[in-house]
């Protein structure tokens, strides 16, 4: 088991802004930074990918939602499902070797496709924080929602992982004939989280931002849950990235029971904005066929997890984004230089 220095910082709240990070990881004298992630993990199904994920000896694993399938108003049932997942042999081994952080999507939030109307979101939040071993006196225990920020100080670089909560504050959606209708005025993040995100993206010392959301941010064409169901919110996110001009940004998402890589080019941004979706740790949509005008390459319809490899280059950072499967099979990839 590798040694990590993990420093937990108190969060200073001034007005509606949160400047400090929830966690900082110190990883020094390492040529390549390796991060893994995944989503859609049903606690009562076989979980064959943990051994492959563990084999990468990654520096951090990120759960991107549907970490269990709670789907209940009974918090005892939700807790029992979290406990079952925490006792899974493969996942236990990963936790012993690798720091694990995460955010929720709908099923671990407690209700399929739910937003701010979910009656038990406050109770569910505490069980979520218990699952990720967040201390009882941590400021996240008193914050609405489970969004969080984590810095990785790696050699001379700072990599910031921002986990967005797209459930706790999200306004309602209407569904007609299984197709979600656009909410032209509603919010995904809520103003407090938006203010927090703007502050998080304002740090010139950060070499790469990794922004994760349970639901997809770039795709617009499918009929299911996505940021594009709230077009003003999606545009606000893209505008914020354009405005802040970070040195580098990568987007991560889950939810869809497929894997894919999407790309959009933003005016004034001197690198492509790429989103890697990895969804299907235990089950996938095997016969999926759908359009995505932003997709690079193939649609992945078998069990998968995500892998990020970060290397220093003469001019900045080189980032490899990979979708992998059983026995570490490389299914799909993209590379970006920042």
UniProtKB/TrEMBL annotation:
Residues 48-282 form the PhoD-like phosphatase metallophosphatase domain. GO terms for molecular function: alkaline phosphatase activity. Keywords: Hydrolase, Signal. Gene3D superfamilies: PhoD-like phosphatase. Residues 1-20 form the signal peptide. CDD domains: MPP_PhoD. InterPro entries: Metallo-depent_PP-like (IPR029052), PhoD-like_MPP (IPR018946), PhoD-like_sf (IPR038607). SUPFAM superfamilies: Metallo-dependent phosphatases (SSF56300). Coiled coil: none annotated. It is an enzyme of class 3 (hydrolase). Its EC number is 3.1.3.1. It comes from the Bacteria. This is Alkaline phosphatase D family protein. It comes from Marivirga arenosa.
């Amino acid at each position: 088991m590798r040694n990590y220095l993990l420093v937990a910082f108190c969060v200073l709240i001034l007005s509606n802004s949160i400047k400090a990070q929830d966690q900082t990881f110190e990883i020094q004298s390492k040529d390549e930074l390796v991060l893994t992630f995944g989503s859609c993990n049903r606690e009562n199904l076989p979980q064959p990918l943990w051994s492959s994920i563990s084999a990468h000896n990654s520096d951090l694993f990120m759960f991107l939602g549907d970490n269990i399938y709670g789907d209940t108003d009974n918090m005892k049932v939700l807790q029992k499902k979290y406990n079952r997942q925490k006792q899974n042999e493969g996942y236990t081994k990963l936790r012993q070797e690798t720091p694990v952080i995460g955010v929720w999507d709908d099923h671990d939030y407690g209700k399929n496709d739910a937003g701010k109307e979910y009656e038990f979101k406050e109770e569910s939040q505490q069980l979520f924080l218990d699952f990720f071993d967040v201390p009882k006196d941590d400021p996240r225990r008193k914050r609405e929602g489970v969004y969080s920020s984590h810095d990785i100080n790696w050699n001379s670089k700072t990599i910031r992982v921002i986990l967005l909560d797209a459930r706790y504050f999200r306004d309602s959606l209407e569904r007609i004939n299984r197709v979600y209708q656009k909410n032209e005025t509603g919010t995904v993040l809520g103003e407090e989280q938006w203010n927090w995100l703007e502050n998080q993206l304002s740090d010139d010392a950060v070499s790469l931002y990794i922004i994760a959301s349970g639901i997809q941010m770039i795709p617009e064409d499918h009929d299911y849950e996505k940021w594009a169901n709230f077009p003003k919110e999606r545009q606000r996110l893209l505008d914020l990235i354009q405005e802040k001009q970070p040195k580098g940004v990568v987007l991560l998402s889950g939810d869809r029971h497929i894997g894919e890589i999407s790309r959009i080019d933003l005016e004034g941004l001197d690198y492509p904005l790429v989103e890697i979706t990895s969804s299907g740790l235990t089950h996938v949509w095997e016969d999926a066929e759908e359009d995505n005008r932003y997709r690079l390459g193939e649609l992945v319809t078998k069990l998968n997890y995500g892998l990020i490899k970060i290397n220093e280059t003469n001019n900045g950072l080189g980032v490899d984004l990979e979708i992998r499967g059983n026995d570490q099979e490389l299914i799909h990839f993209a590379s970006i230089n920042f």
